[in-house]
Amino acid sequence: MKRLERLIAIALFLGNRRRVRAREVADEFAVSLRTVYRDVQALQRAGFPVQGNAGDGYRLSQDSYLRPVALSVEEAEVLAVAARGLAASVEPAVRETLARAKAKLEAALDRPAQRRLADLERRIAVPEGARRASGPTASILEALREHRVASIAYRDTRTAQLTRRDVEALGLVCVGDAWWLVAYCRMRRDARAFRVDHIERWTTTGKPFEPRAGLSFAEVIARDGHLGKRLFGY
Fold first, then answer.
1. Helices 33-45/22-29 angle, 10° precision
2. Which 3 state secondary structure label does DSSP give 29?
3. Contact by Cβ (8 Å): 149, 208
């Protein structure tokens, strides 16, 4: 990354957070602390309103130079899912460009929208080399965001049997050429993965659910693996 690109990226990185330590900036951009200090000073000399110091951390008021982006929560979510899917299947140069564009978008969102988007992204897993696949619907994203129970009609990928069950959506994984919903299945009383294009009916019940101990998205994925036979059925 050229220095000018890094300076812009650091400004966006600061604008996207309340306060950032110099070590966090150094780790994010794989540079030394000395380089961070020089870059921050360069930004200040150029007129960017960077506040703070190396000991207390830095912050940048996004209202001072970023124009708001009029995106709804749903639009931001769709862009996040698309970015994750595309980044896994393109060459490094394109991936870096995509990351910069995504950082600019996030920096222009308000704090609540940033937090909700970050929470959603933590529950979307796309392994390297994933191929283009039919993506999740708006109803699935809403259930993930709002932590609402959904009633689904699902056709099993192996037996073609249609079952109806209530699920608590935990996250999304792109495996090969398909998206899978990882959810707590109330009928099976454990985590299961449902291939998105095999969900024939989706009804959000409106009933909220609380996180279950040991059954967060990250814990289920760590337990079963992205290609776990028990979880994905092959």
1. 100
2. helix
3. yes
Cα–Cα distance, 180 to 174 (Å, whole number): 6
Which residue range forms the structural domain that includes residue 51? 3-64
Q: Are residues 60 and 79 in the same domain?
A: no
Quick one: 78 and 50 in the same domain? Answer: no
Comparing 47-56, 60-69, 89-98, the range with the smallest average pLDDT is: 60-69
The CATH number that applies at residue 16 is 1.10.10.10
Closest to 85 measured CA to CA, from 173, 194, 145, 217: 173
Q: Say how many domains are in the chain.
A: 3
How far CA 196 is from CA of 163, 166, 170, 175, 182, in Å, comes to 14, 15, 13, 11, 10
The segment with the largest mean pLDDT, out of 73-77, 128-132, 218-222, is 218-222
**Greatest extent of the chain over all pairs of C-alpha atoms, in Å:** 66
Query: pLDDT digits over 180-224, tens only?
Result: 899 999 999 999 999 998 999 999 888 999 989 989 988 888 876
